[in-house]
Amino acid sequence: MNRRGTVINVCVSAQKGTPKQPVGGIRLMKDHGVEGDAHAGTPQRQVSLLCQESADKLRDGGLVLAPGAFAENLRVSGLERARMMPGTFLRFERGAVLQVTQIGKECHTGCAIARAVGRCVMPTEGIFARVVRGGEVSAGDSLEVLSDEADGGGACDQ
Asked: What's the total number of domains in the chain?
């Protein structure tokens, strides 16, 4: 199973309910989320991630959506979504660490993606996390899935 992946895009939005826009890099703030993002500060969903492979499910139907279209902060590639269950730690190459808190979410009625394409992958495949250790993350950075505290995740709570 693949434990290493790559950050494809990093995105932020100033308002909830709008697609996020790609940016060069983001700052993850411990116990807060993405600096400058409308969703920062929420306890369980400080950071949202989506595997490129999940987004590709809609591409297979002929639809290509821009980075951030699913309101994800991070689009990642090369990881098996099934490995990222609640409690899992994700460590980025420059030291930031996330802990997965939730898989999927209840989609509010008529979200922008569902209205545009008929369905959204975030309710079943979106990954939500809290920031355990802050730091910088940019497109192209590598990340590693740490299955539990024994892999070093617990040691990151500094």
From this structure: 1
